[in-house]
Amino acid sequence: MHVAHLSLADFRSYARAEVPLDPGVTAFVGPNGQGKTNLVEAVGYLATLGSHRVASDAPLVRIGAERAVVRAQVVQGGGGPHGDAPADGERRRLLELEINPGRANRARINRSTQVRPRDLLGIVRSVLFAPEDLALVKGDPGERRRFLDELITARAPRLAGVRADYERVLKQRNTLLKTAALARRHGGKGADLSTLDVWDQHLATAGAELLAQRLDLVAALQPRVDKAYEQLAPGGGPVGLEYRSSAAAAGADGTDGTAGAPGDEALAGASGRAELFQLLLEALTRARRQEIERGVTLVGPHRDDLLLKLGPMPAKGYASHGESWSYALALRLASYELLCADGDEPVLVLDDVFAELDVRRRERLAELVAPGEQVLVTAAVDDDVPGALRGARFAVENGTVVRQ
């Protein structure tokens, strides 16, 4: 799979941009602050419906504009429900996403308006390497949860609905708990919690599906991450991934369900969705008193973490800067390998990564990704692009994108 043409209207710094793309390696080169990352960010947005740089859509719209439009022609193999299959087996689809901050975004596939933005998921798949990836190792649990959930959705787009259901139920449940907590603190009559059991059921249902998918993903990633780390830093491993469940920990030793507390062995005995549903439901029951006191849901996938181990120790706090970079890159390389095994090869995006790496890691990474069907690279200067990634070049400066 590759993007054959990218069009932007009022996206970030671009009033208009038309960028024809080929398979293989393409590098966008130019001084910092000229819009290189904006181009690859647009591709990533089509793949995930989110940005790797900001949490909301407002910064994606050019200052002074009401909306932004990202449009891409995507070439895939085989047939499908949204496009025709030419004789050579290739299928071309025109995707369009209108970004409307504060309002619902709108999507089109082959000019049809009878689609939701969520329907674009799975058509463009991408794996992004960026300086922000260091937060996967050094950052908060939310960074690692997002990594898992975006990869889950890339593999099975229907799970975007499961994630949305979980977030909706969590929001409603937190509102009820917050109301109860405020009433208690101000000495008033306790809030009506008669519906809390119902919300527990809904949360456990969506949460069990999300938890099952995360556990399956971690198991599939483990050998691939270890292999990728060895390729990037020979002899530096092994590395290990351990899923830390707040539900398994809740009440195990009087805790409130903080991820990483004792009790994760309970996951080993949960062989399916029904068992995970029961695990979550029991954890919510154990944590209810503390949740009512604090006014927030304390257990569930939104409180879990992925422990990254380097040898016997957690990478966070123990790994050096170089080891942390190798770990973050290994997570992305493993994601790429997993998506390739599922079907269409994703677009590889390397956003200003090579300037952050030493020569050895730079060359190893370049050699590993060079065979990709489509690799998009951004760099401030030509010298930052390794020789293994010599291909098409675009100069990006002063709002213009010109092929060299």
From TrEMBL:
Belongs to the RecF family. It is found in: Cytoplasm. InterPro entries: DNA-binding_RecF, DNA-binding_RecF_CS, P-loop_NTPase, RecF/RecN/SMC_N, RecF_2. The lineage of its organism: Bacteria, Bacillati, Actinomycetota, Actinomycetes, Kitasatosporales. It comes from the Bacteria. ATP binds at residues 30-37. Keywords: ATP-binding, Cytoplasm, DNA damage, DNA repair, DNA replication, DNA-binding, Nucleotide-binding, SOS response. The keyword Flavoprotein does not apply. The gene is recF. NCBIfam families: recf. This is DNA replication and repair protein RecF. Residues 3-380 form the RecF/RecN/SMC N-terminal domain. It holds the Pfam family SMC_N. The RecF protein is involved in DNA metabolism; it is required for DNA replication and normal SOS inducibility. RecF binds preferentially to single-stranded, linear DNA. It also seems to bind ATP.
